[in-house]
Write a sequence for this structure.
């Protein structure tokens, strides 16, 4: 793992620094969530074969269960399936271009295994938002490279935020432990890897989210935990995934991706403007 972090730090040193945004942390510690304007992020969009498998085995029964629980908004919520690297909040529409310019060189294609469905809250006891996630097995070169890239991507992109992500403020921030609160203050979001005392932390928990909800977790935890257990019997060994691209995207409050903006190949570094289909440049 150490060699992966060292290589990643080399990438960061070689990256072109982008000017930092004006960061306003005044919403931290307030009782209510910070108003949401626009969130952008860096994510690995799931490849077609992974989506085909989830469509055939999981997403149909999942939607039926959500409708049965009267979670109709969750059942219909738009989302491009993905694994997050890092999210930042900034209402400036020029932010995606600034992110592309600041983006450290991505890793080579990542071979990972996706396994284990589970529910989670943004912070234990906060009540909302909550999610149904599918995890990434925490071993192997692909996972190590993913964790190392999270360090440099967070360091490069977090300065472009205008403040903390709204979903980690208010009751979520109040329910966080000290480590999470420190990340919100310093990089605007929890659950990312940073350098601390000369070493990389391992706070990042890569996963794919299948359900995003702002309903009270206490009302739905039991049936959703039961559903996660059921899905774990459907895919008990998980399945391999090869990630060949990383994308700059737009997200809504809870983290669902609604627009892919730039797609970067992990094979040759080429950049595509998704809206036009034409090649783009980080310059």
């Amino acid at each position: 793992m150490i060699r992966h972090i060292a290589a990643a730090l080399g990438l960061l040193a070689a990256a072109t620094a982008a000017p930092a945004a004006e960061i306003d942390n005044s919403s931290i510690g307030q009782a209510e969530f910070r108003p949401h304007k626009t969130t952008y992020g860096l994510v690995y969009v799931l490849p077609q074969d992974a989506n085909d498998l989830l469509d055939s085995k999981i997403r149909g029964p999942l939607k039926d269960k959500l409708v049965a629980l009267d979670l109709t908004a969750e059942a219909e919520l738009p989302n491009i399936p993905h694994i997050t690297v890092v999210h930042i909040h900034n209402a400036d529409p020029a932010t995606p271009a600034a992110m592309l310019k600041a983006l450290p060189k991505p890793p080579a294609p990542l071979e990972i295994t996706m396994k284990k469905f589970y529910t989670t809250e943004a912070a234990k006891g906060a009540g909302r938002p909550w999610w149904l996630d599918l995890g990434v097995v925490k071993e192997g070169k692909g996972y190590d490279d993913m964790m190392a890239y999270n360090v440099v991507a967070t360091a490069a992109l977090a300065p472009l935020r205008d403040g903390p992500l709204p979903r980690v403020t208010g009751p979520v921030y109040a329910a966080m432990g000290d480590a999470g609160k420190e990340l919100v203050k310093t990089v605007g979001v929890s659950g990312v890897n940073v350098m601390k005392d000369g070493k990389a932390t391992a706070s990042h928990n890569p996963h794919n989210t299948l359900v995003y909800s702002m309903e009270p977790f206490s009302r739905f935890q039991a049936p959703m935990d039961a559903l996660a257990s059921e899905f774990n019997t459907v895919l008990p060994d998980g399945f391999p995934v090869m990630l060949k691209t990383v994308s700059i995207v737009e997200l809504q409050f809870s983290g669902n991706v609604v627009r892919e903006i730039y797609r970067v190949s992990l094979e040759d570094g080429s950049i595509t403007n998704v809206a036009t289909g034409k090649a783009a440049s980080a310059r």
Summary: The CA atoms of residues 89 and 165 lie 5 Å apart. The first helix runs from residue 2 to 14. The first strand starts at residue 39 and ends at 45. The chain has one domain: 2-14+38-279.
